[in-house]
Specification:
Number of helices of chain B: 20
Radius of gyration of chain B: 26 Å
Oligomer: heterodimer
Mean pLDDT of chain A: 96
Largest interface: A-B, 54 and 71 residues
Strand order of the largest sheet of chain B: 6-5-4-1-3-2-14-7
Distance between the termini of chain B: 27 Å
Largest sheet of chain A: 8 strands, mixed
Largest sheet of chain B: 8 strands, mixed
Distance between the termini of chain A: 58 Å
Helix content of chain A: 25-40%
Structural class of chain A: alpha/beta
Chain lengths: 283, 574
């Protein structure tokens, strides 16, 4: 049985009061409660404040490039599907720079958990609008306010028949942990978008702003109804639902790749002898 | 004997079927073969050709002068008639192209009529034409029958029999209607069969036989053949071949799979590689072994998608921000491509660096014959550490300063409780982010300064062919090997001439085993021959060695050098 301490990594270099702290502790707690050991987990991250999270934990880590979290995570999962592969990204990272990979990861459906630290702002580059910023968000780069419609990651994911779509809030770590456990336990690609206030650069979407609006999807909500899920995903403004919006039982990519049905790729021994007959086919 | 056959027509007319079948018939009959393809970037129509040179001695390049032209359309006759040699003949079907030629070099074979009469299907035109070529050569139909049986196995016995009957009818017709074809009658070559393989297949085969378990790519001409080959072997040999959403994903996937413990490779052409550059740098920083096949076509931008050029060398050499080691191989033959792909996997794993197999459309699509490849020369060392390897050792540190430039490489999840951590940020020995200058210096020293000299010692000396103390040295790299070699043969009757061919081009090999600089300095003429406009290899060579070539011969029309064209270029200096 793993302990919370076993997951303890370096001291975080995030701003005091940052929503990332709750995400970090919720994730550690979720893994402990799921009885997953650090050496059974591969955390893959990109760039941004979210990208640093793996360093503040103890597990296998690949901290790669901005937006490229999902291709690395997908391939790592294919290479060793015995690992729990968890991808950590930010809203700029995953929905901006990595938007294309986000779409195609959903299509492929690897059994990978994607946690998106969504603070509706670019924190690491000091406060520009992100793909999820509300229209009109002002910054040094957007003096007239953000001119684009915000992206709705949940609605997009549901429209692509994503295997698991949920939203949590860093200000409610207990519930967030439960959502993380559900996402990690889910078989298939699981998106958990996490509302995570940036206390330094986002003066609009603060802890209070979210707290005033966030509510949990009602008991008896049916996450298998895709159209209803889509409808609820569009709800944003005065009231913002949290919870598991949508789930399905699509086959995972690993289940569909015949060559890893018996055992993970990394456990398959290679012997040059066995490939020699291929030479004969060229005569 | 040394014949050149060109099959010309529109895309979609079956040039590859005819050319490919003939190349295989010749190699199965023991003849040496060299084929190359010239095709347009379109799916149907246009003008394409498939050229097959075959001989009783080794051939390694294409000639311009034709002995047999198979014309499937009128355009082929108009375009290529002037290339016909003195004894040459043109096979065509006057009914199909709606024009009759009376000149003695023309042989009118009713391809379509025979296909309809004998095979009851127009599609069999290609089989008739293939049979007709063999009739002209009087080569017999045994090998072709074998090829047809394999090709149509899935379609059933009836289709096989009809195709064989069509081949026979084309054969008999050509044999009886071409008295002057007596000149083409071939000698027996004995009972040997030769291996026939193109550059892309050789790279794919090299990867397969080196334990490549993961290949991700976005399809791009002319590199797609590697992906096709590996995908066709995926089920039998346990390889995952993933078609990525773009080249950015392709290289990051290869890195992810390699980090997780599988030998991984990606492949593309210049435009796709432009997108991979960021990932290349990531492989450099995280010291993740990957092999990248960069199969060149002319640029910039989309350029000439189906043509050939050697103009990405300096791009690949300098691609990626920051400083990190890399290796570039540029094979000259499919056999070298096979062994260098194997060496790429070996060195990538040993030194944990990205390694390039750089080639081009010309070598990629060219088929060559060989007595065989020697699997005994293949290297396979598993450098990855698992639980037993790390038993009793202290905490595993992915980027440990070992003093040898190389940190141990463990497999996440397979190494017991040891954790594998890496980062695209500068990191400490454990793989965690740092910003202090001392660690930065230590890491750069390990990653780059300590590794590069070790890698350089692994590079093989260039290949010298011809005179051992030449007055004229023709220097080439990669796909120009074959044509330079044949041109050296031609000139060596009157000159002290040799070829110096580089296939392991970065880092350049040390000169302790073979002082190639001394050889160049002692020659009167040192001519660098390149399939690009600016002489990129010459620039690399000067930057690394200080040696300046006396002359440069370049070709940048998107086509490969042929024996005749290179000979003519050389006449300006020799």
């Amino acid at each position: 049985m793993p302990t919370f301490e076993a997951y303890e990594g370096q001291v975080p270099a995030w701003c005091p009061g940052c929503g990332n702290f709750q995400i970090l502790s919720s994730l550690k707690q979720a893994l402990v409660e799921l009885d997953i050991e650090p050496w059974e987990v591969l955390l893959v991250s990109g760039i941004g404040q979210s990208g640093k999270l793996p360093h503040y934990m103890k597990c296998h880590t690949f901290n790669g490039l901005h937006g490229r979290t999902l291709p690395v995570a997908t391939a790592a999962k294919l290479a060793n599907d015995a690992l729990h592969v968890i991808a950590v990204a930010g809203d700029g990272d995953c929905y901006g720079e990595g938007g294309n990979h986000f779409i195609h990861a959903i299509r492929r459906n690897p059994n990978v958990t994607l946690l998106v630290h969504d603070n509706q702002i670019y924190g690491l580059t000091k406060g520009q609008a992100s793909p999820t910023s509300d229209q009109g968000t002002r910054s040094k780069v957007q003096p007239f306010g953000s001119l684009s419609e915000p992206m709705n990651p949940l609605a997009l994911a549901i429209s692509l028949d994503c295997s698991f779509v949920a939203r949590g809030f860093a200000g409610d770590p207990r519930y967030l942990k439960e959502l993380m456990k559900a996402a990690i336990s889910h078989k298939g690609f699981a998106l958990l978008d996490i509302l995570q206030p940036c206390v330094t650069f986002n003066k609009v979407n603060t802890f209070k702003w979210y707290r005033d609006r966030v509510y949990k999807l009602e008991e008896g909500y049916d996450p298998s109804d895709r159209l209803k899920a889509f409808e609820r995903a569009l709800e944003w403004g005065e009231r913002i639902p949290n919870g598991i919006f949508f789930k399905n039982n699509r086959k995972t990519l690993e289940e569909l790749v015949p060559v890893i049905r018996e055992k993970p790729l990394v456990r398959q021994k290679f012997s040059p002898e066995e490939t020699k007959r291929e030479l004969e086919k060229f005569y | 004997m040394d014949y050149t056959l060109r099959v010309g027509g529109e895309a979609g007319q079956g040039l590859q079927t005819i050319g490919g079948a003939l190349a295989k018939v010749f190699s199965r009959n023991g003849f040496h073969v060299f084929t190359h393809q010239d095709y347009m970037s379109r799916i149907r129509g246009g003008h394409n050709f498939y050229q097959v040179r075959f001989s009783d001695r080794r051939v390694t390049a294409s000639r311009d002068v034709l002995d047999i032209l198979v014309a499937l359309d009128l355009n082929t006759i108009e375009t290529h008639r002037k290339s016909l040699g003195e004894e040459g003949i043109i096979l065509y079907d006057s009914e199909s192209i709606k024009k009759t030629f009376e000149e003695p070099e023309f042989i009118d074979v009713p391809f379509k009529k025979i296909a309809l009469d004998v095979g009851k299907n127009r599609v069999m035109v290609n089989t008739v034409a293939t049979g007709a070529v063999l009739g002209i050569l009087g080569m017999g139909l045994e090998a072709l029958e074998g090829i047809l049986k394999t090709a149509f196995k899935k379609k059933g016995d009836e289709i096989i029999e009809k195709n064989i009957a069509c081949a026979r009818a084309g054969y008999d017709y050509a044999l009886s209607s071409c008295p002057r074809c007596e000149a083409f009658r071939l000698e027996e070559t004995g009972n040997r069969k030769l291996m026939l393989i193109n550059g892309l297949q050789a790279i794919g085969l090299g990867a397969l036989m080196s334990g490549c378990k993961y290949y991700s790519a976005y399809p791009m001409t002319p590199s797609t053949g590697i992906m096709n080959f590996l995908a066709s072997k995926a089920g039998e040999h346990g390889i995952i071949v993933e078609q990525a959403e773009d080249e950015v994903a392709a290289i990051n996937m290869a890195i992810g799979a390699s980090f997780a413990g599988a030998r991984a490779m990606t492949g593309t052409s210049g435009g796709g590689f432009a997108l991979m550059v960021e990932g290349l740098s990531l492989a450099g920083m995280t010291e993740t072994p990957i092999v990248i096949a960069e199969i060149q076509r002319p640029g910039p931008a989309t350029g000439l998608p189906t043509r050939t050029e050697q103009a990405d060398l300096l791009f690949v050499l300098y691609a990626g921000h920051g400083e990190f080691p890399r290796v570039i191989f540029d094979p000259g033959t499919p056999k070298q491509a096979f062994h260098l792909t194997n060496k790429a996997f070996e060195l990538a794993e040993k030194y944990q660096v990205p390694i390039f197999i750089q080639s081009d459309q010309y070598l990629g699509d060219s088929q060559w014959t060989f007595e065989g490849f020697d699997p005994g020369r293949l290297i396979y060392n598993d450098y990855r550490l698992r639980e037993a390897d790390l038993e009793g050792s202290g905490e595993y540190k992915r980027h440990a300063l070992s003093g040898t430039g190389v940190s141990l490489l463990a497999v996440p999840g397979e190494a017991g409780k040891h954790l594998v951590v890496t980062d695209s940020d500068e990191h400490d020995e454990k793989g965690h982010i740092i910003e202090d200058s001392e660690t930065r210096i230590e890491m750069v020293r390990k990653r780059l300064l300590e590794k590069m000299p070790l890698i350089r010692k692994e590079m093989e000396a260039p290949y010298l062919y011809g005179d051992a103390s030449p007055k004229i040295v023709l220097v080439g790299h990669g796909s120009t090997y074959g044509v330079i070699r044949e041109v050296v043969d031609i000139f060596s009757k009157e000159q002290k001439i040799s070829m110096l061919h580089f296939s392991e081009i970065y880092p350049l090999p040390e000169s302790d085993r073979f002082d190639y600089l001394d050889l160049l300095e002692n020659a009167d003429l040192a001519i660098c021959i390149e399939n690009n406009a600016s002489g990129q290899f010459a620039k690399l060579f000067r930057a690394e060695t200080g040696f300046e070539f006396t002359h440069l011969i370049t070709r940048y029309d998107g086509r490969p050098f042929t024996i005749e064209s290179l000979k003519e270029d050389l006449h300006a200096y020799i």
